[in-house]
Structures are given as C-alpha cells and as structure tokens.
C-alpha cells in the first residue's frame, strides 16, 4: 500500500480486509484513505496493522450500540 512517496505494509487476515473494505464503502472513501487516517492518528510505536485492527473493532463496536442495534432491526421484537 502506498502513502504518497512512502510504501507501508498492512498485514490483516481475510475477515479484517473484508471489514476494512466495508468501512471504506460505507464512508465513501478508499481503503488507502482509511489507512492514512489511521496512520495519522496512531500513537507511538503501534504498528499500522495493529492500529487498523483496533480501528475496525471500534468502528463496528460503535455501530453495535443499543441505538445502532435497534436501527439495524436486530434483536427480538416482542
């Protein structure tokens, strides 16, 4: 993956790549743009791969709030 003149490697398993592509699609940006944002926000010696995995988890965790859960039509309708 290239970030301007720099090339970085992000090692993710297939499920994480799929989730990353889904996030990019939902946000109407490229996967590279998501990774660039994560790269700018990561702290210290944290690897980009680890920062991307954390971002993915937080993204979907936020979507899994009670409000998000309800809006998605998940759960039991009593």
Estimated structural class: mainly alpha
Rg measurement, Å: 15 Å
Q: Provide the β-strand percentage band.
A: 5-15%
Note the overall shape.
elongated
Measure the end-to-end span: 48 Å
Q: Residue ranges: pLDDT <50 for 5 or more in a row?
A: none
Spell the H/E element sequence: EEHHHH
Biggest sheet character: 2 strands, antiparallel
Q: How many runs of DSSP E, i.e. beta strands?
A: 2
Number of domains: 1
Q: What is the helix fraction of residues, given as a range?
A: 55-70%
Q: Name the average pLDDT.
A: 83
Task: Describe the SSE topology.
Blueprint: E1 2-3, E2 6-7, H1 14-27, H2 31-41, H3 48-63, H4 66-71
Antiparallel strand pairs: 1-2
Helix pairs in contact: 1-3
Short key terms for the protein model shown above:
78 residues; mainly alpha; two-stranded antiparallel sheet; 2 strands; 60% helix; 5% strand; elongated
Task: Write a structural description.
With 78 residues, the protein is mainly alpha-helical. The protein has one domain. Helix content is 60%, strand content 5%. The chain contains 4 helices and 2 strands, in the order ββαααα. The chain has a two-stranded antiparallel ribbon. A hairpin with a 2-residue loop joins β1 and β2. The longest helix is centred in the last third of the chain and has 16 residues. The chain is elongated.
């Amino acid at each position: 993956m290239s970030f301007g003149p720099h090339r970085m490697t992000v090692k993710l398993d297939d499920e994480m790549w799929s989730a990353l592509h889904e996030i990019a699609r939902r946000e109407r940006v490229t996967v590279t743009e998501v990774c660039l944002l994560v790269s700018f926000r990561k702290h210290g010696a944290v690897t980009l791969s680890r920062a991307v995995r954390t971002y993915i988890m937080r993204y979907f965790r936020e979507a899994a709030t009670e409000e998000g859960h309800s809006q998605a039509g998940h759960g039991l309708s009593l």
